[in-house]
Write a structure and sequence with these properties.
The chain is an all-alpha fold and 193 residues long. Helices cover 71% and strands 0% of the residues.
Length: 193
């Protein structure tokens, strides 16, 4: 079979994006151990070699999946930020971050264990950084406020995912809103002083 015939036989539209989507599904249903180029190819109905046209190996696929996760997180943070203003927007972002982690725990963990991009260079981080810059003051520089907010919500998400915070079913969002709201109000008080 010629190369052009092979390409037509395996034409899948945007196979790279399809492989990432299939990997996200595998990740959510079967966990990170189930992720492989072969499994993604099987899920897309293509040959085991087809993914290698888009990814050099499993690590590159994982990087693409993690990058997609950061984009999805950015969408959640952006929507939360636009829902209100000031310190309350920071609290809404925090609650959205924790909700994302709890809704997609396998992806959340993969995002922070995969060396795809440094999280602090992602669009999600820049959304947080922009809100923090709007709330910053000489006594609380934007870089410090951004890191403190990120550390709080990431730590809270990790504690909830690891079941270190005793919560009843359905309580996660309320707790995340309460904790991030307290942080935002405290921050607003510090930056006004």
């Amino acid at each position: 079979m010629s190369t052009s015939t092979l390409e037509k036989a395996y034409h899948h539209g945007d196979l790279g994006a399809a492989l990432v989507s299939a990997s996200l599904d595998l990740l959510e249903s079967d966990g990170a151990a189930a992720l492989s180029l072969r499994a993604a190819a099987r899920a897309c109905g293509v040959s085991a070699m087809a993914p290698y046209r888009h990814f050099a190996g499993k690590e590159q696929l994982l990087e693409a999946v993690a990058a997609r996760g950061f984009e999805d997180l950015a969408e959640s943070l952006d929507a939360a930020d636009r829902s209100t203003e000031g310190a309350e927007a920071l609290a809404a972002q925090g609650a959205a971050y924790v909700a994302f982690a709890c809704r997609r725990p396998a992806l959340f963990r993969l995002m922070f264990m995969t060396p795809c991009q440094k999280p602090d260079t992602s669009r999600a981080y820049r959304i947080l950084e922009t809100r923090a810059a709007a709330l910053a003051s000489p006594g609380m520089p934007a870089a410090d406020l951004t890191l403190a907010a990120w550390a709080l919500v990431h730590g809270l998400a990790a504690l909830i995912l690891d079941r270190r915070v005793p919560l009843e079913a359905g309580e996660t969002e309320a707790v995340a809103r309460r904790i991030t709201g307290q942080f935002a109000r405290l921050t607003a008080g510090l930056t006004e002083a």
